[in-house]
Every structure is written in structure tokens, then in C-alpha cells.
Amino acid sequence: MERVSIPLQLRVVQSQPCQAEQDDKWSTGLCECWGDMDDCCCAFWCLPLFVFKTNRAAGGCPCLPLLDCVGCGTPASLAMRAAVRERYGIEGDVCSDCFYGCCCYPLSWCQISREINKRRAAVQAHASSLSSSKAHYTQLVDQDDVHLI
């Protein structure tokens, strides 16, 4: 039986898929609500729903925002702000998280939401640019008589 040589085309990965470029600053300021008026209006008119939605988008526990209703500070805001800072490598500390959570509660949640949305959009854009690049794949060929030694 005659062997047929099938050309094999390999796709070389030139860059690893990764999260958005990590910057050590928040992408927007605390009071920059004009970029996402839908979220800011939702936060203004129905803050508990907005907090729940943002918490869920960040992958937090659904019951975490209920702790803010109990009193004694704002543990959900503090925890979520710290988690987002840690995830995206944003500078800051617990004192600033506590200050923003207590003094600027709705604005803090809007900033967290904007950061999550912006980073997620950047990752999706990066992933779609990788998938849209032309890649050639060869189909596997049934080779019954071929044996590996």
C-alpha cells in the first residue's frame, strides 16, 4: 500500500490570550457617570438592584449586598471594591475603599460597574480579534494501516 504525504499546516500562537492591559489606576474617575447614563440612572433610581447586578457581574456572592443593609459600615462595597482592585491590579488600599464605600456609596458602585464593563469589553475585543485572524486547520485523516513504532 502506498503512503500519501499530507501537508500539515500548523498555527503558531504568537501571543497568549490574556486579560485587558493591567493599569494601576481606575479607568474612570469616581464622578464620571456621563459615560454610562443607563447604569447611573439605575443606581440613582434603584440602588439595591444596581448593587446586586454589579455584584453579580463581578462574580460576588448574591447575598453580600444584604450586609450593607444591616449597618456597621458597608462591607459589601468594601469587599467588592477591594476585589475589583485586586483583580485588575489597581492601586489603592482598604482605607480608600472604606472611605469611598461610606462617603460615596452610589458613586463607588458606579465606578466598580464601569471598571468591570470596560475590562470585560477589552478582553472580548482581544478574543474576537484572535478568533477573526485567518487560521488554517487540516482535517484528521483516517489512517487505518499506519502504525506508530
TrEMBL record:
Protein name: Uncharacterized protein
Organism this protein belongs to: Onychostoma macrolepis
Family of this protein: Belongs to the cornifelin family.
InterPro entries: PLAC_motif_containing
Pfam family, one: PLAC8
Superkingdom of source: Eukaryota
PANTHER family noted in UniProt: DUF614 FAMILY PROTEIN-RELATED
